[in-house]
Amino acid sequence: MIHIKDLSKSYGRRRALDGLDLTLGIGVTGLLGPNGAGKTTLLRCLATTLAPSGGSIDAYGLNPANPVQRTVLRRRLGYLPQDPGFYPHFTAFDLVDYVAILKEMTDRERRHIEVRRVLAEVGLTEQARVRTGRLSGGMRQRLALAQALLGEPDLLILDEPTVGLDPEQRMSFRALVSRLGESRTVVLSTHQTEDVAALCERVVVMRAGRAVFDGTPGELAGVATGQVWLSDEAPTASRVFWRTADGRYRTLGQRPPTGDATAPGVEDGYLVLLGEEVAA
Amino acid sequence: MSWHIPDDLRGRYLAGTLETAAALSVDAHLASCARCRAAVPYEQDWLEGSWARLETALIRPRPSPAARLLRYAGLPDHVARLVSATPTMSRAWVVAVVAALAFAVLAARQEADLLPAFLTLAPVLPLTGIALGYGPHVDPAHELTAATPLAGPRLLLTRAVAVLAVATALAAIASPLLPAPPGLSAAWLLPALAAASGCLALSTRLPVPIAALAVGGLWLAIVGAGRLTGGWLAAFGPVAQIGYGAAALLLMFRLYRMSFR
After folding, report:
1. pTM score, two decimals?
2. A162 in the same domain as A48
3. Number of folded domains that form chain A
4. Do residues A68 and A164 both lie within one domain?
5. Helix axes of B124-132 and B153-174: crossing angle, nearest 10 degrees
6. Which residue range is the domain that position A63 belongs to?
7. Do the chains contact at A85 and B204, CB–CB below 8 Å?
8. Which of A49, A35, A34, A41 is nearest to A7 (CA)?
């Protein structure tokens, strides 16, 4: 289990995390929130690449603030950063092999078997000998995911992992992550509410460095119960509405004059929740 | 396909008693006939092992010339890759090598006034290498690798040792060319070791370039204070050398305790 208590992080006067409390267990937890909500800062603190300003993290009984325990914790985690950089002259195999060395895999034959395994997991076997500078954006994202999978970590931290993936790749990614989530802790941040609905059993909505919602995707969708409407005419009172593919208007908030109630989705709940937060 | 390999022919093929021409004919038929292929038994483990060996041979990183050289010198494969793999590391190597060679060339010209500058600046060479070779500003994959167990002091220590070894070897070649006793010419080695250890120890609390600057500044302050109190050689005397050696030992012990458990 991972216990996060009163975690805070400031960049100058700006507080990216503001007394966050969270407990993470086995399964897939999705972090949702607008830009600047503190998702990446939280994930970087969890990944031990950023020291918090206050509060504490206890991951499997290890304290990342302690250099020795931090090293032990790093042996148990895989991390996909938001902006993974690459050495353009490295091949895909070179890069993952290099990270595997940094993960203390010193036996060359075993290491190469593991590198091939993770490349196959993300569907990059055929690109193993292609230089990273020649890979497409989606392939680079999958390559970054491959290195995070090295050593089958107990804690998998994924910062916007589906950016740049096409629909087919996203389906493969969801299948992979949901399988991993059966036996380990997976935390991912995303702007894609459909990813959360499809593969997360738990969702945490963050805003201004705090968790403003913690529950299942169904419970998040439930926040918008009685506030989602379909109408033939554009509403005049609501600011949040859009025209759907079938030509009707989907409205969040007050019922339009000719509106029919419809079942809310995760995105509706998220928008209503953030709207309430702004109003408050 | 109307013809299939008879049982007795297949038996002799599997036993390896067929003549070459007949065996090649069976091979050719097997390549085009799934039914006959299915009748040929094989060991799953052997087949998977063969594919794994084939993949190992075909799909593997091609070591850089520097990595190959280090492997020939006896370094384990993974260490050779660590100290030579990244562009930032290459830059650190180049800085150390160029600086040491520059000293050697100048020293060969018998510039008598060069000794104080040499002794003062030589310990800072490894620091420069360390500072240039690590961090988010110089390493594009820093964030990708920062959450690995080897990141931080252990990686820095490994690379610092590599840079220090090159700088030491080249500067040691330059030392006898200097117009000074051999002992004095080598007086920079212990300060270099202490400075590199200090930088690595500080890097657990400060960004590496700042740690390198802080230790470099401290070293220059020590040399300056020595010059004010007892002449420019004061910072390189026997008592000072014992101090540098002790400091290096303590700092390396602390690094070991912090990073290698």
Report:
1. 0.77
2. yes
3. 3
4. yes
5. 140
6. 1-76+153-216
7. no
8. A41
